[in-house]
Specification:
Blueprint: H1 13-25, H2 31-38, H3 47-64, H4 80-92, H5 97-109, H6 118-125, H7 131-141, H8 144-159, E1 167-171, E2 177-181, H9 187-194, H10 197-209
Antiparallel strand pairs: 1-2
Length: 212
Amino acid sequence: MLAAVRRPSPQHGWVGIFSVETTSRLPHTASSHVLTTAGNKPPWTLPAKAAYSKYDSARAKKYFGVPNIKTPDFFPILSLLPQRALVYVKEAHPQAFIQVFYDLFQEMWENGVDVSKPDLLSRVLSKRFPEADVKAILEKANSAPYKQRLNDNTKEALDRGAFGCPWFFVRNSTGEEEPFFGSDRYVLPASTILLWQETCVQYSARHRREGV
């Protein structure tokens, strides 16, 4: 998800708060299973959507300030291993979860590293963890409990109405919760989280006018 790679900063306050806080609460799911079970299709399998995606991707990269993102030639991947690894990292090393998420995203979508390969995944994880921890993460990611944990997360998402990714369940400070789908609607869940809709909309409009 493009918004998740924009780091918090004083200049981009609500964007950073939204991306980090939402991502840290998001259970990882098997996205391909969500699509097929819900009867949905990846956008690139539909000719009209595939043709449109070049415009949509260019706009999103400019808006979120990530010009180096590109689709690697090995995409799509079987992403079960890195997702199970993230499930374990979130449980065992919660303070490192967001940064590891960023690392995996950046390595795949900017540097063209296939993080579904155990040796390459290990190399990325070694940026944050000592060798013993990397070994433990991979062992847990291949273990029955964490395979089941990812399955359970995916089932929960489907049971709650998910039909694709990114999909967020957002609960604000008053306890109200709504689902949100799509990478082009981040201002809406941000306004729900912050209960600050007018400011968020004004910020988003200024952000676009300035061409950031």
